[in-house]
Amino acid sequence: MPIRVLPEQLIHQIAAGEVVERPSSVVKELIENSLDAGAKQIAVEVEDGGVRLCRVRDDGGGIPRDELMLAVARHATSKIATIDDLERVGTLGFRGEALPSIASVSRLKIVSRTREADLAYALTADNGVYSDPAPSSHPVGTTVEVRELFFNVPARRKFLRAERTELQHLMRVVERLSLSRFDVGFTLSSGRKPVTTFARVESDEQRHARVAEVMGHDFVANALFIEHESLGMKLWGWICLPTFARAQPDLQYFYLNGRMLRDRTLANAARLGYQDVLFGGRHPAYLLFLELDPQLVDVNAHPAKLEVRFREGRLVHDFVFRTIERVLRDTRPGAHAPAPPASIETILDKAASNNMWPARGPEQSRFLLGVSEAPSAPYRAAPSVESAEVTTTDEQAPVDTPPLGFAIAQLHGVYILSQAPDGLILVDMHAAHERTLYERMKTAMADDAIATQPLLVPVLVQLTRADADLIEEHGESFKTLGLEIERSGPAAVQLRAIPTLLRRIDPSQLLQELLSELREHGTTRKLDERLNEMLGTMACHAAVRAHRNLSIAEMNALLREMERTVRADQCNHGRPTWTHVSMQDLDRLFLRGR
Ligand code: ADP
Ligand code: MG
C-alpha cells in the first residue's frame, strides 16, 4: 500500500481509541468539561448503560455560537494557548481531543448558551458530518448528548458489557468525580430513574455524608483525618486505621489538584507509609488530596490523564510517605491523652464545629494529627465503639488515670483486662508485647545500640553448608541485629552473642527461623532491606507467649509501655492490640438505664 494521509474521520476514531473505552469514559470527559466550565450542578442521564445515550447537562459558562464548531474540532481548546500554559495546566482538560474523538464514534449533539447570549445554539455531529449551529433553547450552560456509542466501530462495541456492568462503571466515575469537587452537585439517572444524587455540599455534615456514601460508612468510622502542609505541598484527606486494611486495593483514592489519578508513585508512597503496621498482603484504604504547584507536575503524560509525571518525583513521594507514616506512628493508646478513644464521628463533628473543612488556622491545629515538624500532641481516633456517647477533648478526664487504665486480671492467659476511666480495656498481651519489643529494637538498631550479651558458652549450630555460607556472607547484618556469629566448620556456626532481649529464648531455633526467612526471600535482595522483618521475627520470639502468667505489676508495666510506644494500636502484622468496651456498652448489654 502506498503511504497516504488518513481521512479526518478515521484520525478522530484512532484518537478515540485512547480516550473512549466505554460509556463511563465518555461521561468522565464530559463531566470534566463541565467542571472546567465552572458548573455548580451537573446532571448525567444515561440509557441502556450509556450505550444508547449519555447526556451531561451543566450550568457552566456555555460555549459561544461562533465557537461551537471549534469545540468539536481536533486540537481546539480554550484552556491553553502556549507551551508555557502547558507547563502549568490548571484545568482538567487541555488537549482539545475529547469532543472530536467522542463525536467520531457516536452521534453527538451540543446545545449551549452563554450568559451574554439571548439564545442557545445547537450543533450536531453525525458520523463526521457537522451541522451549522442552529438556534435552540437552553438555560445558561451546556448539554452534550452522546447517542449510540460505537455505532460505527463494531470492534469496540463488542467490548461493551451488560447494561448493569456499564452502569456500575458510570456510577464509579460519578462517585469519584464527586469527591474531587464537594462544591458541585451531581446526579446520575438511568432510564429516567435516579441512581445517584449528590447534593452540593453546603455544610460539613453533608461533606461527611458524601465521603461516607462513596467510601462506605465503615471507612469513615475507621479513618483518621489528616492534613499536612510543607515544602509548598499539601496533603489532606482520610486514611484508614491499619486494622481496617482490606483484602483488595479497592478503596484507594488519590486526587492531585482536583484530578483523580491512578498513579504509581503516590500509591507506592502510601503503601510505604503503612509499612510495619499492615497485615501481610492487606491493602490500606484512603481518600487523599494532594495539592501542589501545577508547574511541578506534567499532566500531559497519559491520554485519559490518569497518570502524571512529577518533576520532583522523589520529593512528592517522600512527602506523602512521611506524612502518612507519621500519622500512623501515633496510633498508640492515648496518643492525645486525656481523650478517651473517640470515634471518627467525634472528630468530624468536632471539626465541623470548628470549620475544619478545609482546616486552616492555628487554633484548629490541635485537631490535626501529629504530622507537623513541631512536637505537637496529635489528636487521634481509636477504633470507634459504635454509637458510644462522645466525650470531647474539652472535658478533662481524671489526670492520674493512664489511657489504658490499670490491669485487674488476665483472661485465659491471653488477654489482659484493665479498668479504664470509662470502662473496660482488653489487651492481646502477646501482640502488644511484640509491638513494643519490635519498636524498641528498631530504635536501638537505628542507633546501632542493640544491647547484646555474650554467651558464656557459645552455642554451636549445625547447618547446611549453603546456610553457613549465607550467614557468613551476611555477618555484618547479623551483627547489626545483635547477633554475633562465627563460622566454626564447613557446615556449622557458633553463636557468640545475642541481643539481651532474647536471652531467654532458644538461639538456634531463632537462627533457623531467620535463615528460612533469608532463603525464602532470596539472597539477591540486600539483607539491609529486610532487617526490620528480621527484627520483627526476633520480637515475636521474645514476646510473652500465651498462657504465661503475668503478675499485675507486669501487666501494668506492659500497659504503660504500650502508651509510650509508637504504632502500639496494632501488632506487627496489623492486627489490633487492644480494644475498649465502654460502661455504656456494658450498660446496654445489661439493659441498664443510666
Ligand atoms: P479540552 O477539554 O481538552 O479543551 P474538549 O474536546 O473536551 O477539549 O473540549 C473542547 C472545548 O470545548 C473546551 O476547551 C471548551 O472550551 C469547550 N467545552 C466543552 N465542553 C464544554 C462545556 N460543558 N461547557 C463549556 N465549554 C465546553
Ligand atoms: Mg475536555
- Oligomeric state of shown chains: single chain
In which range does the helix fraction lie? 25-40%
| Count of extended strands | 23
- Identify every distinct bound molecule in the structure, by name, code or SMILES: adenosine-5'-diphosphate, magnesium ion
Number of domains: 3
The CATH C-level class name of the largest domain = Alpha Beta
Distance between the termini: 88 Å
Overall geometric form: elongated
Instruction: Let me know the CATH homologous superfamily of the largest domain.
Output: MutL, C-terminal domain, regulatory subdomain
Count the DSSP helices.
19
Please name the CATH topology of the largest domain.
Ribosomal Protein S8, Chain: A, domain 1
- If you average the pLDDT, what whole number results? 84
- Stretches where pLDDT falls below 50 for ≥5 residues? 336-398
Based on CA atoms alone, the radius of gyration comes out at 30 Å
**Estimated structural class:** alpha+beta
- Tell me about the largest β-sheet: 9 strands, mixed
Set out the fold topology:
Blueprint: H1 8-19, H2 23-36, E1 41-47, E2 53-58, H3 68-71, H4 83-86, H5 98-104, E3 107-113, E4 120-126, E5 129-130, E6 134-136, E7 141-147, H6 154-157, H7 163-180, E8 185-190, E9 193-198, H8 204-215, H9 217-221, E10 223-230, E11 233-240, E12 252-256, E13 259-261, H10 264-273, E14 286-291, E15 297-298, E16 309-310, H11 313-329, H12 344-353, E17 406-411, E18 415-420, E19 423-428, H13 429-446, E20 452-462, H14 465-473, H15 475-480, E21 484-489, E22 492-499, H16 507-520, H17 531-542, H18 552-564, E23 578-582, H19 583-589
Parallel strand pairs: 1-8, 12-14
Antiparallel strand pairs: 1-2, 2-7, 3-4, 3-7, 4-5, 4-6, 8-9, 10-11, 11-14, 12-13, 15-16, 17-18, 18-19, 19-23, 20-22, 21-22
